[in-house]
Amino acid sequence: MRCFTVLxxxxxxxxxxxxxxxxxxxxxxxxxxxxxxxxxEFTFGNEAWCALDAPGPNEALAHAQHALLAxxxxxxxxxxxxxxxxxxxxxxxxxxxxxxxxxxxVNRMDEPRGRLRDVIAALQDYTNHTLLLRQIPIRExxxxxGSCDLISERAWRYREGQTSALIAIPESTAEREHEARxxxxxxxxxxxxxxxxxxxxxxxxxxxxxxxxSSRVLRENKIIPVxxxxxxxxxxxxRLMKALRHEAPPVGVLRQRLAHTGSVDEGKLVAVSFHxxxxxxxxxxxxxxxxxxxxxxxxxxxxxxxxxxQNLANGRSNLAVLPAPGDVFATxxxxxxxxxxxxxxxxxxxxxEWTEPxxxxxxxxxxxxxxxxxxxxxxxxxxxxxxxxGLKVLQEEGTGAQLVRAQGPVHLRDxxxxxxxxxxxxxxxxxxxxIYRETITKPLEVHYRHRKQTGGAGQFADVKLSIHPNExxxxxxxxxxxxxxAVPRNYIPAVEAGAREAxxxxxxxxxxxxxxxxxxxxxxxxxxxxxxxxxxxxKMGVRQALSEGSTVLMQPVFRSExxxxxxxxxxxxxxxxALNGQVLGFDRDETTKGWDIFRALxxxxxxxxxxxxxxxxxxGIGYFSKSFDHFEELYGKEADAIVRANEKPGTAx
Length: 653
Prior knowledge:
By secondary structure, this protein is an alpha+beta fold. The chain contains 16 helices and 33 strands. The chain has an eight-stranded mixed beta sheet with strand order 2-3-4-1-5-6-12-7, with helices on both faces. Strands 17-18-14-13-19-20 form a six-stranded antiparallel beta sheet. Strands 25, 30, 31, 32 and 33 form a five-stranded antiparallel beta sheet that branches. Strand 5, helix 3 and strand 6 (102-106) form a beta-alpha-beta unit. The longest helix has 19 residues, at 171-189. The radius of gyration is 33 Å and the shape is elongated. Residues 552-642 form the Elongation factor EFG domain. Keywords: Elongation factor, GTP-binding, Nucleotide-binding, Plasmid, Protein biosynthesis.
């Protein structure tokens, strides 16, 4: 079986392309996962094929990346409108990073939305591979009525629902065809000395030789050939499928590529897991592509026994049919197989770095609907994060509530639906509160005496303390200048412990940071003094000082790193400024053509708005990662509102 992924932005007709390709020579067999990855098995040219139709939203980019891990080649569907080329930038990025041979298919050519050469020029800004036209459109006015193949120099007229009709190249197209063919040959000659000689000697190379060269450069991932059509009408589908059949590499090439990137012995690499999901009453289902021989139920794979091997289309197990190299199958009761991963009989190998999904930007607290749901939620989220690497699961600081980081609102909605439909856990979500702190702005001294007389031994401790602001980021410090044994040495650690305890919650209701405490003097009683007494005196004394020390609210500030196509970099300055952030600068992304890395400092309270604004400004393409940088003072109405909100039950941080 040969396997390819069809990927691209939403609304580019990917699913229609898969449907038409699968129906060229018979009825396809379809299956799908809850995450939107659709699989279509079909026969073409007496060969078995499997098409992986990756979900289109940018929030599901991780599933497209993982599908590439199991694919011999891919088809990238793009719009015929030049202005929409930037939407393909994330897909060109992962195709290039993966090293997967790619055919670019400009779909919906029946819609007059711009010139093909402008589409290619716009897309070329986002890939280091040369985008090489293999076909040009034949037009009547604004309407595309057919295509001309630049290698065979034959023209076809599209026919609705039928095979295209062979026609003579129209005179109106001849000049453009000659120009495009010359450009094609010049690019191909860069990878073939024989062709270069032919062109220098002004000899016309044969079509068979050109097809062979074109096939080789695609298999070697030297260029990205460009084909055109309109899948909804069936136009260009046969040519696209023939290109895959003749030019996409066999499964052995994928095995070599994965062995190289994973630093694993090619002879031991027998499979790759690329997708998984949970089904009600079934459990975890893992999708695997065989790369070697010997896979069957009970065989050793990834260091444990392979569970039941199932047919993709009907979910049935057939012990008599063993997966051959290239076959794609499902397996249950193989929970030991992580996704994605490279698999040998005895080990699981981590996938290449390029499979790492974009950093999730949307943070939400999941609130279970009942105590029963609360008990199940943590374990269930852990299971789901194993099958969805775009999801991160943490606990909220302070409350311990379940905090999830999702790729976006659609991803979050799908997560909540899975929790409900598959695991019967009802949840609502809320925005997490930023983690605020407080500190003091001026030094002061306090004298506190703790005296308590009850039946038996009493309590006595007297402390004189100096409390002062520390430098930002210095945290809590403690010192002492006791002379003459006014406070015995064995009680001084208790004084420090009491001071630390007082820092747990200040007058504004938050943890106190960046404050220093010095024990200056004190008194003790030979009978009534104790560690407990001095701890209590210190805690109450520091609390008294904090209430008099001009406390100020401290907000967290995060260092944020944005990954965006360069055309959007200018808009980020206004977004960051509107959120009271500070722009630090940007550089070209040296690893990805056409992208920038933009850096800024952003207040923690603005991160939710930042994610929303970034999605809107970059059409859902851009993403950012964040790391805590420092706390800074916050004054005025905003600070007052935060303090008032913190006084409500369950909101303290």
